[in-house]
Amino acid sequence: MVNHDSPPRPVRTVGLVARSDLQAAAGLLGDAVTWLEQRGVSVLCDEVTSALTHRTQPPVAKDQLPHHVDLVIVLGGDGTLLSMADRIATSGADVPIMGVNFGSLGFLTEITLQELYPTLELVLAGRARVDARLMMRARVTRGDEVRADHLVLNDVVVNRGASSPIIDLSVSVGSKFVTHVRADGLLIASPTGSTAYNLACGGPIVHPAVDAFVLTPIAPHTLTNRPVVIPATDEVRVQPAIELPGDEVVASFDGQHGLQLADGDVVSVVAATPPLRLVRSSTRTYFEVLRQKLKWGER
């Protein structure tokens, strides 16, 4: 889902965000700041990144950073990118994000260190590849009260607590009841999130250009419960049946936030707008990334 409809916004200010323990990136961050400033681009950093670069310029809080920049560059792994993706979506700033891989797998932070400056050259010239990635809005309601409201890039997971037995979840899509799932949990993934926890749970890989949700049971009690791919035009509703006082059911959102559920709570997921704009590598296709990360074709 590449957005060709509107011209890219000129990049005059860049926000830099690095993983908190990424001391190895300090030198690279300093070089990147110099490179950008030599090209007339201002640079803002969050508190952690500012400390790594030893900048004297006051830092900007992560939640506020999307309001002040035209591009966010993340150095770290997919978790670091997810934390900023949620903040960008919540801000409504519609700022593109570029992930530079310092993690282990990196489906989202796919740009390598060698590709950093060539990709930035394309960004500044307005010729970078930018994907529009489906975001999800997830809410937890308890009666008439909204207990949680999050914008999510990868997945929403409803699963049992560590000491709880198998759980029973009622699942509906739109106005139609789908099934009762007896399992360790249920995962609702976007196409972007299909290569994350969903993949580890046996769910399918969905190309990011497809507007869809994936419903994947986690360790289902019966093998007839299988992953299902549905259009992202309908609301997904999940309601746990919590029978005993010691039972624990938790909803988590992109692995960044969590909430313990009560009997009768409803977890609802819909497609959110606008999508997240993700800067892609100019040298590799989506399938090349899959081959590299999943070691396809290797013995």
Key features of this structure:
single chain, 299 residues, alpha+beta, Rossmann fold, Tumour Suppressor Smad4, 2 domains, 10-stranded mixed beta sheet, 6-stranded antiparallel beta sheet, 19% helix, globular
Report what the structure shows:
This protein is α+β, with helices and mostly antiparallel strands. The protein is built from 6 helices and 16 strands. It has helices at 26-38, 47-53, 78-91, 116-125, 197-200, 286-294, and strands at residues 13-18, 42-45, 71-76, 97-101, 130-142, 145-152, 155-160, 167-173, 176-183, 185-189, 212-218, 228-231, 236-241, 249-253, 257-261, 266-279.
Question: Can you describe this structure in just a few lines?
Answer:
This protein has 299 residues and is an alpha+beta fold.
What is the element layout, followed by pairings?
Elements: E1 13-18, H1 26-38, E2 42-45, H2 47-53, E3 71-76, H3 78-91, E4 97-101, H4 116-125, E5 130-142, E6 145-152, E7 155-160, E8 167-173, E9 176-183, E10 185-189, H5 197-200, E11 212-218, E12 228-231, E13 236-241, E14 249-253, E15 257-261, E16 266-279, H6 286-294
Parallel strand pairs: 1-2, 1-3, 3-4, 4-16
Antiparallel strand pairs: 5-6, 5-16, 7-10, 7-14, 8-9, 8-13, 10-11, 11-12, 13-16, 14-15
**What does the average pLDDT come to?**
90
Indicate the proportion of strand residues. Answer: 35-45%
Distance between the termini: 32 Å
Oligomer: single chain
Portion in helices: 10-25%
Structural class: alpha+beta
Q: What's the level 1 CATH class of the largest domain?
A: Mainly Beta
State the major sheet: 10 strands, mixed
The helix count comes to: 6
Q: Name the CATH architecture of the largest domain.
A: Sandwich
| Count of individual domains | 2
CATH topology of the largest domain: Tumour Suppressor Smad4
Number of strands: 16
| Gyration radius from CA atoms, angstroms | 20 Å
Assign an overall shape.
globular
